[in-house]
Specification:
3 domains, Heat Shock Protein 90, Beta-Lactamase, alpha+beta, single chain, 5-stranded antiparallel sheet, 454 residues, 9 helices, 5-stranded mixed sheet, Helix Hairpins, rod-shaped
Length: 454
């Protein structure tokens, strides 16, 4: 779930900048570490060199005995200084170091080693650095310093760098999750609003108050686009309605004249042609009537809506269709919950349901297992009507297209129809504010209509 938040551009940006800052912190930390370490090392080496040169001069000027005295005096007065002088047999003569350490001289002429010191009842180990020299008489001298502060500060800088990197990394991750979640929430509000508008046939608008400034302009432009689409769709509907209205009258007159002509003509071939023309004119009139009905439904208000017993209506429709369905050798199943009521137009709903059942019968498969199932039930205070069949069905990609005017799918081209039946169904249900949805019955189709309970 959290990984989805990283898909947001804001989250990716925060994460990238966090990684960039981590890189900068690493570079700066290494630079500070190197600078601090070098300064401290240089200072410690400088102090060691001063002590070293002083003791060497003391030996050369006053001899070994004065050297031993000086070393013992300095051992008492300095806590961080380290001294040891041994004879030719490596036996300690003077100093505050118990024994000669293992020698491993570095390129800078210094040796690094560890020393153990008692702190109360506890023994602690410190890092040290020193210079050594061996005189002609076999006397060896070691002059050094306890560099534990240098080591501790270097360690502290390293830990600080690691802590800073971890802190920035986790801050970046959690910041990315938080900002990604915030950004996706706002985007999802916009997406859901657009999806709801699309599902409701472009009805509704996006509420800008729930969207932050970054997406408010997009929402405003989408609302403007939807208003423009509404205007274009309304104009298109008006044009088709006007065309149907203007052409219906001359077509009706043409049909009447053809019927009169068929009564006067005696030639059988001529009568056949005239009859075919009458049939085609009648089909055109039916199409124009359907277009006018759809336009009427779309512009209709709820003036003729009454409280209807939807259970009784569905039972009546089923009783009417039973003989037709039995004649087609289709199995009819019904499950109608009693005493359900809703607010609507009985005539329009009857036309809507009969269109759906007609389609189920028309596209049923010609075999003994064909069935049509009609269910009416209430769930979550909503009334559902389901029409199920195992016929030819509709491809999922065409679920939305079939409600458009004059749309006929390729596999249904051979059957009679004008592609207006489901458009009329959608217009009637829109008037009733009842969403309709299609789903695959594998095989066949499920048509689901949802009404608000009165």
């Amino acid at each position: 779930m959290f990984l989805n938040y990283f898909k947001a551009l804001t989250a990716k940006t925060v994460l990238i900048f966090s990684l960039f800052f981590i890189f900068v912190i690493i570079v700066l930390s290494i630079s500070v570490y190197e600078f601090t370490y070098k300064v401290m090392k240089k200072e410690n080496n400088r102090v060691i060199n001063i002590e070293y040169e002083y003791l060497v001069k003391t030996y050369l000027k006053y001899g070994p005995q004065q050297l031993y005295v000086t070393i013992n005096q300095r051992s008492k007065n300095q806590n961080t200084a380290i001294y040891i002088a041994t004879d030719s047999f490596n036996e300690k003569i003077a100093g505050n170091l118990n024994s000669w350490p293992e020698e491993k001289i570095g390129n800078d002429g210094f040796i690094n080693f560890e020393i153990s010191r008692s702190l109360g009842s506890e023994i602690i180990t410190h890092n040290s650095r020193a210079r050594i020299i061996e005189f002609k008489n076999g006397t060896k001298l070691l002059v050094g310093r306890d560099i534990q502060p240098e080591f501790l500060i270097s360690k502290a800088l390293t830990n600080l760098m690691i802590f800073t990197i971890i802190f920035i990394l986790f801050s970046g991750i959690f910041g990315s999750i938080f900002l990604g979640r915030y950004s996706l929430t706002k985007v999802n509000i916009l997406n859901n609003a657009i999806q709801n508008i699309t599902d409701n046939d472009l009805n509704g608008r996006i509420n800008n108050k729930r969207i932050n400034n970054e997406y408010k302009q997009i929402a405003t432009n989408v609302n403007r686009m939807l208003e423009r689409i509404d205007e274009l769709v309304e104009n298109s509907k008006n044009i088709s309605g006007n065309i149907a209205h203007d052409l219906k009258k001359p077509l009706t007159k043409l049909k009447s004249n053809l019927e009169l002509l068929s009564l006067k003509v005696k030639n059988k071939n001529s009568i056949q042609y005239i009859s075919q023309a009458i049939i085609e004119a009648d089909n055109l009139i039916k199409i124009f009537n359907a277009l006018l009905d759809i336009a009427s439904f779309e512009s209709e208000k709820k003036q003729d809506f009454k409280l209807i017993k939807i259970s009784s209506l569905m039972n009546s429709i089923i009783e009417i269709y039973k003989p037709v369905i039995e004649e087609k050798k289709i199995i009819l199943k019904d499950n109608i919950q009693n005493n359900l009521k809703l607010f609507g137009n009985k005539i329009l709903l009857t036309q809507c349901f009969t269109n759906i059942i007609d389609n189920a019968i028309k596209y049923s498969k010609k075999n003994k297992n064909s069935f049509i199932e009609i269910n009416l039930f209430i769930e979550n205070n909503l009334i559902y009507i389901e029409f199920r069949d195992n016929g030819e069905g509709i491809d999922e990609k065409d679920f939305n297209r079939v409600f458009d005017r004059f749309v006929r799918l390729e596999k249904h081209r051979q059957t009679q129809g004008n592609g207006l039946g489901l458009s009329m169904v959608k217009a009637i249900l829109k008037l009733h504010e009842a969403p309709i949805s299609l789903s695959d019955n594998k095989p066949g189709l499920i048509v689901t209509i949802m009404f608000k309970k009165t």
